[in-house]
Amino acid sequence: MLVERFLEHLAFEKRASSLTVKAYRGDIGQFSGFLKSELGVDDPATATDKAVRAWMMRLLERGVSARSVNRKLSALRAYFHFARTVGVIKADPTALIDPPKTPTRLPEFVAERNMERLLEEMPWPEGFVGSRDRLILELLYGTGMRLAELMGLSPADIDLRRGTVRVLGKRNKERIIPLAVPLVELLRDHLRLREELAPPLGTVLLVRPDGKPLPRRTVQSLVTRYLSAVTTQDKRSPHVLRHTFATHLLEHGADLNAVKELLGHANLAATQVYTHNTVEKLKQAHRQAHPRGGNHDR
Fold this sequence. Notes:
By secondary structure, this protein is mainly alpha-helical.
């Protein structure tokens, strides 16, 4: 049966995960059930573009989210592409189907006043641990680097004299990020404390008091715990601090292209998503302050 051949192709040739294969099996099975019960079609390979659109419409009418429908459509696209490749069908019925539009997810960020409370008023632990914990928060917020980039930092990547840090990003693309003077001083102090640790140290910047590398999960937990002290928002992850870095820069007038370079984005479109938050803030200011903004008595 073609569906089983396709799923074997996914598992053994494409090396898809078992969860992906299971999801594709379920999506194609759901589509096949719809074809049989609603249209009297037994073989999904013979489905037309109208049948695919009718199935998508039925899913949306039943309250399935546009994002989930897109995922199911992706499963069908892969299936019909395989069917065409092996010569079972001549035309792909999904080729001209546009996916339903999904609502734009605006990046969640921490308000500036809450970041000030965190970095200026937080009672950090004493000694090396407190210095390290604060450095984690300051580096993520002060540079916008990704968690993986932070975990890959070594002392050799930091140039205290020039006030810069070298980061190795996605696709092994290297970039240089400037450091604010307070962050340079924090790094200087922490590197001194790090050198005073008794165990021999490796090349990783972030370590435990015993000199071993700090686990990624520990960094995630630390960030969540510290952010929880100043905000109740749902997302309190290292990536939220990356969003916060970009949003606060743009709110203070930073050039979009400069923010793109700092974040290490491959194209400007990835950075433009942060402008939505800034525009919404401007709209709110306009509504509140302009005589005809809408929040005034007439």
